[in-house]
Amino acid sequence: FPPLLHLVTAALGEFSSHSAEGILWSGLLWLSLLGLSTAGVAFLLSGSSLASAATFCAVVSIPALHASATRYYYDLPMSAWLWAMLFVMLALRHRALVCALAVSLLMFAACLTKWTALPFGLLMLVGATLSTTHPSSRAARTSLTTRLGTAVGAAALVSILIVMFLDLAGNHDSFTAMLGDIGERGEIWGPQGVDANRLDAIFDHIFRDLQPLSAERLRFYGLRSLSSVFSPGICALFLLGTLLWLAFSRRGWPLIVATVLGQSAFLLLRIPPTDERFLLTLAPAIALAAALGWAHLPKQIQTISAALFIGLSVAVAVDFHLIKGDGQ
Length: 328
Fold this sequence. Notes:
The protein is built from 15 helices and no strands. By secondary structure, it is an all-alpha fold.
């Protein structure tokens, strides 16, 4: 894996300790950054502080996300960087140069946390570019041409940074080590090097081993989303909220569709069904759609459904964090 998470954690360790137990609190920072970034995206899309607050609560209540906050691993920090990138992309799009620079740095930070941020981030960047913000936002007056130029500039800058990093890393780089990790059994695992002088070689390494869609992959990721990422009860409430969003809002639909369907397609065609950690980055998009849909409910129904969601979320969190299972 690339080095950024370890460098950030080492710096944070100065405030507590560098032991594994002493630095676990940093997971709460990544979860908070992810929740706040997604809430900011909700506000920019809808102009509603209620939808923004609901999005924050929905994101931090996703079981797989607060479970990841208690472990030292790469997917939660990577996801936090990527959603912060989306917030900046929407908030600063009226300042094209500043936006392109900030977006490229955040996406580069995500890539240096985990390399799957490269395909995931590009999909999210396309979705954010095509999405319009709420009319009350200053960024709403930005034309599509300007937004496209900003996105292309950001993608070019992050490509240059990645090529420079891989060139410095030489033949033993984390990029191709990651490709062995997400590839089919039988690939050569471990660093193999990538031709950093050819940008197309980097993307060829990512997309060349796409696999045919199979029932096994659909079943695996579908069941894991239901049971491990969201839990059945929370998943049902998110589904209802998403249906409301489709019926009454559809704000930010290019962003949500590009994130959910784009990343799902990449997982189904490229990532072998080993575990559900690759689903964490798209999970906030589903919470975002559900919160935007929930905001259109009548006040009384909002109160009842919010109480039901909070009760389910607390029950799931208590079951995971406090109730010891067999062998624990």
